[in-house]
């Protein structure tokens, strides 16, 4: 059985990743009623919500698994069992056929692959979150710098204007002093005229 097909049948319900009895029955090649009977005969193996629990109608409708179909007998009559990874593992001891064992191996691989994927995503998310916080800090720092520059009062601006004006006047005076019309003394050693 294809791993991606199995992964598509894993749902998140009550904060746990589970598979539903009718999906499992289809994979095992049996009827849902037979699977449920086998589970009820061995209910002590599935005690605790960490192995299996029965869905409520509200959960069923919220998951959009139990949507109403048209036609007689096509709607879900009984609430399905939701099997956690531990519960699916326990099913292999209840359904003792070679098909069930092979399917169970693939289901366990799908649960592990899903868990590894979610762990990888959470570490990537943490890195992205850290980068986001760093960028946000840089933006705040840039905004503070811009505010500081913009907070220069008119008085300071006038002072800067006066300084720029004085510098430009000095540059003009220096330009007039060293105009090209004046002969300049040569720089360096000058050989005396004979």
Q: Please, could you describe this protein's structure?
A:
It contains 7 helices and 4 strands; from the N terminus they run αββααβαβααα. The chain is α+β, with helices and mostly antiparallel strands and 194 residues long. A 4-stranded antiparallel β-sheet has the order 1-2-4-3. Strand 1 (11-13) and strand 2 form a beta hairpin. Helix 2 (21-28) crosses helix 3. The longest helix has 53 residues, at 98-150.
Primary descriptors:
single chain, 4 strands, Mlu1-box Binding Protein, DNA-binding Domain, rod-shaped, alpha+beta, 194 residues, 4-stranded antiparallel sheet
Map the helices and strands.
Layout lengths: L2 H6 L2 E3 L2 E5 H8 L3 H10 L10 E3 L2 H6 L18 E3 L1 H10 L3 H53 L3 H24 L17
Helix pairs in contact: 2-3, 5-6
Oligomeric state: single chain
What is CATH's topology name of the domain at 3-125? Mlu1-box Binding Protein, DNA-binding Domain
CATH class membership of the domain at 3-125: Alpha Beta
Order of the strands making up the biggest sheet: 1-2-4-3
Corresponding CATH architecture of the domain at 3-125: Roll
Q: N-to-C terminal Cα separation, in Å?
A: 111 Å
User: What characterizes the major β-sheet?
Assistant: 4 strands, antiparallel
Number of helical segments with 4 or more residues: 7
What are the segments in which pLDDT stays under 50 over at least 5 consecutive residues?
none
Helix content bin: 55-70%
The mean pLDDT is 77
**Beta strands, count:** 4
Radius of gyration: 40 Å
Order of helices and strands: HEEHHEHEHHH
Strand content: 5-15%
- Summing up helix and strand content along with how strands pair, one would put the structural category as alpha+beta
Shape: rod-shaped
């Amino acid at each position: 059985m294809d791993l991606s097909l199995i992964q598509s049948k894993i749902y998140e319900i009550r904060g746990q990743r589970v598979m539903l009895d009718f999906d499992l029955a289809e994979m095992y090649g049996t009827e849902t009623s037979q699977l449920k009977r086998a589970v009820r005969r061995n209910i002590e193996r599935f005690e605790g919500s960490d192995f299996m629990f029965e869905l409520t109608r509200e959960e069923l409708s919220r998951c959009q698994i139990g949507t109403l179909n048209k036609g007689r007998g096509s709607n879900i009559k009984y609430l399905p069992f939701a099997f956690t990874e531990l519960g699916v593992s326990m099913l292999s001891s209840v359904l003792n056929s070679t098909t069930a064992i092979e399917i169970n191996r693939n289901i366990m691989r799908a649960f592990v692959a899903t868990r590894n994927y979610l762990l990888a995503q959470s570490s990537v998310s943490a890195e992205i979150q850290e980068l986001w916080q760093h960028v946000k800090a840089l933006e705040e720092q840039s905004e503070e710098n811009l505010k500081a520059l913009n907070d220069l009062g008119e008085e300071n601006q006038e002072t800067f204007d006066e300084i720029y004006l004085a510098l430009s006047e000095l540059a003009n005076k220096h330009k007039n002093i060293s105009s090209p019309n004046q002969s300049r003394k040569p720089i360096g050693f000058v050989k005396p005229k004979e």
